[in-house]
């Protein structure tokens, strides 16, 4: 596509669609109107009231007829001897039949025709003179005069016939010319109409093609945008389609800009996440190692010099080892907690009944001497990450198991409850329980590190449970009473209430 | 016979090294232990350098993951990439229980992955079991089995 055609299309494209449509609609109308005007003008041409050539020809015929009638009447008057008005008396002034001759002459614009009429006039005058002579003769008419008149009359008849032939020939020529003219007009009309209609179709096709191409380009831009491909800048003119394409480009730029911002945020978050991972990695490695040294070497010390140490020193060594071991457990739990927070969520159907039963089974195997009455409701199903729900139940049930250790008839139940129209999974025990005044501290990972005696041994399990349920859009409720047990309810707002449970 | 089977301990931390040696002796594992302190040294020992040809291969490599210069996973990758050491038993012995380390080690062909316990008694127990299993019970391809795959 060269530059000029771009420019031309650009100009055409700059017109609004409404104008383009109107132009295309009137394209055939304009030449048609022109042709009609031309034909009308040609047909109506000529001054009003003037007889047409054909009319003149008809009048000339009548004039000729009247001339022959006049001559016949004049002759009859002369030969019957009746007193008749003098020849030409019926007319006012001028030679008799002058008016008729004028009419006849009008039908002949050509020189040849006029010459014939002149000859007719001469013949008429000759006949008139012959008749005058006969009339003025008294008594018997001379045979010369009679034959003279007869010859003159024959000449008149011949001249009339001559003019009449010329008139007929003229009329034929006129008719042929008129026919030719009307055929020409017909052709002009036909060709003009074809041109006009063809032009209209051409213009319409051109407009539709141009529109289609540009609309397709606009659709292509939208397609590319939706596929997030690189979108080239198309110049689609300045009409509605062009503006649409331009807006699409603007939109694309906006989306790109927002994507850039989002990408920046994601990169920042990813960086933070990487730092967190690096942190937990270094906790995993670097904090455990010295702990292992503390625990290990205090044991070495005890083994090597235990007998040389007094009771108090040995107790101190034991405390060091115990503290190191506890810190090791805490580090493990912190790492578990951070993993629960970082791991991607894989949502699927989770059979909590089966998970809880498995966890209880494992607890029984680990501690076969315990006699705990466990009741897990059937068909406890939720949608969530099976691994994380397993960790949550493991933490809750381990706690319940642990804190019913001194209860004579220990009982643990897992069942569905309704909480404010939301599904709750309640894990309840009749164990040591806790003081509701400290309920808030149960879930705090770092409050827990302050070591409230009451929660000792609970670890970071509840904080982990809380994180897991929060990641599923829910929260955990804790209810307890010292010496009477604790109930932890996992409230899951995304789950249908009163389902199979 | 046990005494002839050498252990290569790749460990950069002297505390862990001392504890490990003590655990070996507490577990009555008397195999000679060769200690290298970083990944490069471990590879030099196994594959030799331009100036020193490689010595005889150890019976077992105990590999820490967090090492100076070349980290443990890379050492493992190069051990497996070299025909001479491709079938050598390598036990990853580390403080980390990160999934990335665990999966990475097994993907690269670690024979075992053991987390160092903080508690010393547990540490000794783990060391004893490792020694028993890898130095007594487990049958590894001998040097003669290994050779036909070609040396590099």
Distance between the termini of chain B: 29 Å
Average pLDDT, all residues of chain B? 84
The overall strand count of chain B is: 5
Please state how the strands of the largest beta sheet of chain A are arranged side by side. Answer: 2-4-5-7-6
User: Strand sequence of the main sheet of chain B, in spatial order?
Assistant: 2-1-3-4-5
Relative strand content of chain B: 5-15%
Total helical elements of chain A: 12
The outline of chain B comes out as globular
Short description:
Helices cover 65% and strands 9% of the residues of chain A. Chain A has helices spanning 3-14, 17-26, 29-43, 53-80, 98-106, 111-136, 143-226, 240-305, 311-342, 352-366, 386-403, 461-471, and strands at 348-351, 373-376, 381-384, 411-419, 422-429, 475-481, 485-492.
Describe the structure.
The complex is a heterodimer of chains A (501) and B (152). With 501 residues, chain A is α+β, with helices and mostly antiparallel strands. Chain A has 12 helices and 7 strands. In chain A, a hairpin with a 3-residue loop joins strand 6 (475-481) and strand 7 (485-492). Chain B is an alpha/beta fold. Chain B has helices at 14-26, 39-47, 72-81, 99-107, 120-137, 143-146, and strands spanning 7-10, 33-36, 60-63, 90-94, 112-115. In chain B, strands 2-1-3-4-5 form a 5-stranded parallel sheet, with helices on both faces. In chain B, helix 1 packs across helix 5 and helix 2 (39-47) runs parallel beside helix 3. Chains A and B meet through helix 8 and helix 9 of A and helix 1 and helix 5 of B.
């Amino acid at each position: 596509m060269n530059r000029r055609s771009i420019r031309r299309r650009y100009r055409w494209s700059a017109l609004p669609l409404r104008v383009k449509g109107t132009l295309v609609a009137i394209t055939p109308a304009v030449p048609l109107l022109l042709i009609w005007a031309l034909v009308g003008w040609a047909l109506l041409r000529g001054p009003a009231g003037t007889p047409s050539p054909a009319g003149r020809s008809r009048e000339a015929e009548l004039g000729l007829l009247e001339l022959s009638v006049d001559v016949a009447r004049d002759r009859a008057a002369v030969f019957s001897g009746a007193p008749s008005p003098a020849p030409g008396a019926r007319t006012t002034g001028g030679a008799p039949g002058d008016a008729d001759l004028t009419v006849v002459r009008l039908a002949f614009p050509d020189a040849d025709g006029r010459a014939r009429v002149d000859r007719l006039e001469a013949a008429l005058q000759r006949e008139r003179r012959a008749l005058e002579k006969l009339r003025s003769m008294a008594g018997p008419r001379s045979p010369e005069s009679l034959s003279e008149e007869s010859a003159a009359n024959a000449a008149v008849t011949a001249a009339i016939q001559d003019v009449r032939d010329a008139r007929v020939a003229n009329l034929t020529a006129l008719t042929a010319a008129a026919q030719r003219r009307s055929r020409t007009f017909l052709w002009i009309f036909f060709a003009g109409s074809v041109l006009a209609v063809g032009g209209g179709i051409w213009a319409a096709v051109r407009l539709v093609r141009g529109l289609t191409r540009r609309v397709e380009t606009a659709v292509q831009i939208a397609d590319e945008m939706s596929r997030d491909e690189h979108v080239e800048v198309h110049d689609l003119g300045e009409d509605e389609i062009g503006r649409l394409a331009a807006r699409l480009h603007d939109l694309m730029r906006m989306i790109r800009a927002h994507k850039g911002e989002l990408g920046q945020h994601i990169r920042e978050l990813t960086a933070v996440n990487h730092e967190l991972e690096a942190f937990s990695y270094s906790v995993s490695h670097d904090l455990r190692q010295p702990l292992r040294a503390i625990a290990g070497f205090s044991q070495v010390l005890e083994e090597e010099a235990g007998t040389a140490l007094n009771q108090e020193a040995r107790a101190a060594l034991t405390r060091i080892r115990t503290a190191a071991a506890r810190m090791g457990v805490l580090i493990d739990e912190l790492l578990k907690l951070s993993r629960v927070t970082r791991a991607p969520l894989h949502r699927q159907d989770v059979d909590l009944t089966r998970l809880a039963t498995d966890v209880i089974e494992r607890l029984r195997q680990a501690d076969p001497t315990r006699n705990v009455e466990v009741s897990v409701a059937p068909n406890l199903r939720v949608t969530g990450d099976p691994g994380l729900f397993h960790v949550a139940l493991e933490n809750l049930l381990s706690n319940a198991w642990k804190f019913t250790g001194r209860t004579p008839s220990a009982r643990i139940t897992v069942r569905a409850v309704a909480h404010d129209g939301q599904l709750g999974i309640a894990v309840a025990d009749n164990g040591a329980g806790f003081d509701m005044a400290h309920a808030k501290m149960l879930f705090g990972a770092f409050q827990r590190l302050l070591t409230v005696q009451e929660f000792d041994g609970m670890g970071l399990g509840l904080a982990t449970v809380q994180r897991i349920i929060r990641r599923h859009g829910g929260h955990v409720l804790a209810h307890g009473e010292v010496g009477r047990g604790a109930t932890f309810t996992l409230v899951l707002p995304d789950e249908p209430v009163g389902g199979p449970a | 016979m046990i005494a002839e089977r050498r252990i290569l301990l790749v460990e950069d931390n002297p505390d862990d090294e001392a504890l490990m040696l003590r655990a070996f002796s507490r577990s009555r594992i008397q195999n000679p232990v060769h200690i290298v302190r970083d990944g490069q040294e471990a590879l030099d020992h196994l594959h030799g350098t331009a100036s020193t040809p490689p010595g005889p291969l150890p019976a077992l490599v105990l590999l820490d993951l967090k090492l100076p210069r070349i980290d443990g996973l890379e050492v493992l990758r190069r051990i497996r990439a070299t025909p001479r050491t491709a079938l050598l038993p390598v036990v990853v012995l580390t403080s980390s229980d990160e999934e990335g380390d665990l999966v990475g080690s097994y993907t690269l062909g670690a024979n075992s992955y053991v987390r160092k316990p903080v508690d010393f008694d547990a540490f000794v127990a783990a060391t004893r079991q490792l020694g028993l299993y890898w130095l007594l019970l487990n049958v590894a391809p001998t040097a003669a089995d290994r050779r036909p795959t070609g040396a590099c």
